[in-house]
Write a structure and sequence with these properties.
Layout (H helix, E strand, L loop, with lengths): L5 H23 L4 E2 L2 E2 H11 L5 H9 L1 H12 L7 H11 L3 H4 L8 H15 L3 H12 L4 H10 L11 H4 L8 H14 L7 H8 L5 H11 L7 H9 L4 H14 L6 H9 L4 H10 L7 H8 L4 H13 L4 H11 L5 H14 L4 H12 L6 H15 L11
Antiparallel strand pairs: 1-2
Helix pairs in contact: 2-3, 4-7, 8-9, 9-11, 11-13, 13-15, 14-15, 15-16, 15-17, 16-17, 17-19, 18-19, 20-21, 21-22, 21-23, 22-23
Length: 398
């Protein structure tokens, strides 16, 4: 009678169980779903792409935001570093093709998951009421890292976010400078919901030498920060640094769109010596309606950072789409392949039915040898998710 090799049988059963898990785990997972995929699946995609998340993962997290919030908060407060064995496992999984990798549980480094969870919460803006009790509790933690994380997350709140202001204002006096900075940043994130903090911010301003973050908060609050207008105006008069002057002028124009400080932004946009300054001015010019002619000039130029910033400001100023699309169509005739690709990508996002841009991007995405292929594919995927256009591509260059 043949001897039974139990080792082989056990190994075979283990392999079958592993394969079964990979095939059916998604179906058995009780997590909330979007388009048939679990929350963990979409969060995994977001972690891979969260620095520039594509529409599919961001839309998924937004669509299931109420159910996703507890999951994301848990990830955000999982502050322990990965132990060596887990790091080895993550390294092995991360080297697999994405279609395999997404099937494995918890294959995201904890530090990356924490940061991605924070950015996801900032993107979906959860309602304040269900979240505030937890964040208030975390602010009392003996662990500094937990308190810092709570200070940041208070700024991610959406509806009812003004309730976070009484928790953030005392943090402006915290002994830890990072916590103070995070509290200030969160008040900026909350925007007009932080109006009640204006008196405390003015008091803080009298003791704080780093004025730019403070000005950014006042600007984000908008017209309700009018009591700070004269203070920021004095800061602007005494500031010699051109970039800081643009930031201060931006805050003043957000508080009062008719402020004379708008001239500072327009002057910075017109100068040609410092492209970094021009980019900053092009971005903040969205608060100055009189800047539109200069923005159109900047939009017609070749520096991608400048014209991209100008494009977004023109959209915020409700510039006629026909004018914007005409400039983008001209850019598609450029000799620079990167500029052509950027123009086609922006044009297709602005006008998903534009056949010229769609065809151009399809051709690049279909060519496996084109170094710009992945960017073209991402644009096509994003636009398809949002609108159903354009059609998928067929690969070539095999």
């Amino acid at each position: 009678m043949a001897r039974v090799n139990w080792g082989v049988i056990i190994l075979g059963c283990g392999l079958l169980l592993a394969v079964g898990y990979l095939i059916f785990s998604d179906e058995l997972n009780p997590e909330p779903r979007y388009q048939g995929k679990t929350l963990s699946h979409w969060f995994g995609i977001y972690c891979d792409e969260y620095t520039t998340p594509v529409a599919r993962s961001k839309r998924a997290l937004s669509a299931i935001s109420t159910k996703a919030t507890p999951f994301l908060l848990k990830k955000a407060f999982s502050l322990e570093a990965d132990p060596p064995l887990r790091r080895l496992y993550i390294s092995a999984v991360q080297n697999m093709p994405y279609s395999w990798r997404s099937r494995f549980p918890s294959s995201i480094p904890s530090e990356k998951a924490q940061e991605a969870a924070c950015m996801a919460l900032l993107a979906i803006r959860p309602q304040a009421a269900p979240v505030l009790p937890l964040l208030q509790e975390k602010l009392q933690s003996p662990h500094l890292t937990t308190r810092r994380q709570a200070a940041f997350l208070l700024g991610t709140l959406g509806l009812g976010g003004e309730a976070a202001v009484p928790l953030l204002v005392p943090l402006l006096q915290d002994k830890d400078s990072i916590t103070r900075g995070l509290a200030l940043q969160s008040l900026e994130f909350l925007g007009s919901n932080s109006a009640a903090a204006v008196p405390a911010l003015l008091d803080y301003a009298s003791k704080e030498t780093n004025r730019i973050p403070l000005a950014a908060v006042f600007g984000a609050i908008g017209p309700s920060a009018k009591p700070a207008f004269d203070t920021i105006t004095e800061w602007l008069k005494g500031e010699a640094d051109a970039r800081k002057r643009v930031d201060l002028a931006s805050a003043l124009c957000q508080i009062d769109p008719q402020a004379e400080a708008g001239k500072v932004i327009i002057e910075a946009l017109r100068q040609k010596k410092d492209n970094g300054l021009r980019e900053a001015a092009a971005y903040t010019a969205k608060y100055v309606s009189a800047s539109m002619p200069d923005l159109l000039q900047a939009f017609s130029e070749t520096d991608p950072l400048i014209w991209s910033a100008a494009f977004h400001s023109l959209k915020d100023l409700h510039c006629d789409d026909k004018i914007i699309n005409g400039v983008l169509a001209n850019k598609m005739q450029s000799q620079d392949p990167n500029e052509r690709l950027n123009a086609a990508s922006v044009l297709l996002r602005t006008d998903p039915h534009n056949s010229e841009a769609a065809t151009y991007l399809r051709n690049i995405a279909a060519d496996r040898l084109d170094p710009l292929r992945e960017i073209a594919k991402t644009t096509l995927q994003d636009v398809t998710v949002d609108t159903g256009y354009p059609a998928s591509v067929k690969e070539k260059g095999r």
